[in-house]
Amino acid sequence: MQRAVWYIVIVALAVFVTACSDREEAVEQKPSAEQRGSSAEEVKQEAQGALAAAQQYAQQQKEAYQEQMQKRLQELKTQMEELKARTAEASEHAKAEFQELLQDVQEKQEAAQKKLKELQAASAETWEEVKVALNAAMEEVQKSYEKFRARWSDKENV
Asked: Domain for residue 45, yes or no?
């Protein structure tokens, strides 16, 4: 019977010692105030890095879009000059009609050019808003150009 009591006491001591050492490890695993500050600083730096990367990406997207729109406006201008040269051979009545259509296209090109300048001045954060307006202006230019081209095509066949 005394042996059983000794076994119980030894097992109880072993459990007690094991439990106490687990508690000490748990206390030791908590980061110190210095470690927590360092960790917070690291998170802050990572967030700043991510923000800078996002802003750089937005700027690259803005510049690529800007180049694309400049190229498209130049192409339309070139096409308009070609059509304008062909209208020189038209009758006076046709020239007057085409002059009105040409003026409409040119006004819309100027509006699109103005929006393009706004895009150039826009920040990386706000360029998306300007992009929407520029897209609308470019659609108007394209519609006006297509109308001009279609009317000229009709006149050529008459």
From this structure: no
- 3 state DSSP class of 30: coil
* Within-domain flag for 48: no
Q: Decide if 5 is inside a domain.
A: no
Quote the number of domains for the chain.
1
pTM: 0.63
In-domain check, residue 50: no
Residue with tokens 């070139």: 78
Distance set, CA 60 to CA 54, 77, 156 (Å) = 10, 26, 44
- 72 in Cβ contact with 90 (< 8 Å): no
pLDDT digits (tens, 9 = 90+) for 22-35: 554 544 555 555 55
Measured CA to CA, the distance from residue 40 to residue 36 in angstroms comes to: 6
Give the structural domain span for 79.
59-157
Q: DSSP for 44-69, please give it.
A: HHHHHHHHHHHHHHHHHHHHHHHHHH
Note the pLDDT of residue 60.
87
